[in-house]
Amino acid sequence: MEAFRAFRIHSPAGGDDARVETITLDDLSPGGVVIRGEYSSINYKDALAGTGEGRILRRYPLVGGVDVAGTVIQSDDERVREGDKVVVNGCGLSETQDGGFAEYARVPADCVVPLPESLDTRTAMGLGTAGFTAALAIHRMELNGQVPALGPVAVTGATGGVGSLAVDMLSGLGYSVTAITSKTDAADYLQTLGAHDVLNVKTMELGNKPLEKALWGGAVDNVGGDLLGWLTRTLRPDGNIASIGLAAGIALNTTVMPFILRGVNLLGINSVHVPRDLRLQVWQRIATDLRPRHLDQVATREVSLEELPAQFPAYIAGTVTGRTIVRLQ
Ligand SMILES: NC(=O)c1ccc[n+]([C@@H]2O[C@H](COP(=O)([O-])OP(=O)(O)OC[C@H]3O[C@@H](n4cnc5c(N)ncnc54)[C@H](OP(=O)(O)O)[C@@H]3O)[C@@H](O)[C@H]2O)c1
User: In what order do the strands lie in the sheet with 197-200?
Assistant: First the structure.
């Protein structure tokens, strides 16, 4: 096979150490399936890795990008056939093995999910890790008893990729969604996605009692820090909080009171290490009952590999709304 373009990260320093270059298949980490990539996407984690703002890669150099969707051109596994349209998200991409920001990817068969028929590769990357994580969180909450009757579900970091898709998916399932955002001009966008209420975090009084007035039937938290602590103190009895993100910090200050007096459940969501059966199940739900109704309004940007570095700073600053698709060919 000829040489191809890849966005490669050479060190934790970011800057010019992360760039598009020409490589061959022999440069990629081992794997039984070779995919001709059609689209990838940008997630917060990709911006951390690409700028060096966060330590995501465990070895260097690696191709960046935690997501890829494309067509299988080689496979050593009967569960994945040549010609299949597939998606790979997480699974060590851009951490321990080469990722999706390249014209070709080589990955272990266990990571590869044949796309449900109703999803094309571009739609799959409009969703990407963000959509998969939102869906996994909702799936886990429901397995743990979450139902609309428990009360409104709060979504923090609501205009981000995971947040936007969680708002859309939850409202589609009949939950009343309260979107919590740091942006002052996001109400129209969030209401279009199905939010019933929109709160601005800058004007919220978080209080400091071990238990505050119980407001939420459940919560999807993308930011961590003070907001996550406040969610534990304001959840209604037996509700679930899906802890997904750390955009505002890794600390969690709370007490055991919400857990032992209100039976609040704190569910950790890890989209990277997911058994294949569960991956297939979650993508199947994304293609059916969890399919966002407003993906066109969420995934509004498309960029080339060369345009990646210019996109990352806005993710780090938290000023991005929605999702960015990356065109690979
Ligand atoms: N656990 C997992 O497996 C998993 C998977 C995917 C993502 N994540 C994590 O989930 C979070 C969201 O990911 P994403 O890809 O949706 O990110 P994103 O598109 O960049 O969105 C992040 C959003 O968080 C909000 N935010 C609040 N405070 C922020 C701050 N100090 N800096 C930056 N953003 C801030 C902003 O929304 P508002 O302005 O609306 O508040 C921002 O748009 C990230 O922390 C990411 O690492 C975890």
Answer: 197-200, 177-181, 153-156, 216-221, 235-243, 265-268
Q: By percentage, how much of the chain surpasses pLDDT 70?
A: 100
Distance CA 12, CA 61 (A): 10
4-115+294-327 CATH choice from 2.40.50.100, 3.40.50.11540, 3.90.180.10, 3.30.1370.100: 3.90.180.10
Residues of the chain with CATH 3.40.50.720: 130-268
* 8-33 pLDDT per residue, tens: 999 998 888 999 999 999 999 999 99
- Test site for ligand 1: of 93, 139, 182, most ligand atoms within 8 A of the Cβ: 182
Q: Give residue 44 CA to ligand 1 midpoint distance, Å.
A: 6
Residue 189 CB less than 6 A away from ligand 1: no
> Using a 6 Å cutoff on CB, does residue 161 contact ligand 1?
yes
Instruction: Indicate the CATH number of 130-268 among 3.40.50.720, 3.30.450.20, 3.40.50.2300, 3.40.50.800.
Output: 3.40.50.720
| Four-residue CA torsion sign, 222, 228, 233, 234 | negative
The predicted-structure confidence for 207-257, as pLDDT tens digits, reads as follows 999 999 999 999 999 999 999 999 999 999 999 999 999 988 999 999 999
Is the CB of 41 inside a 6 Å radius of any atom of ligand 1? no
- Name the token pair of 40: 């990838």
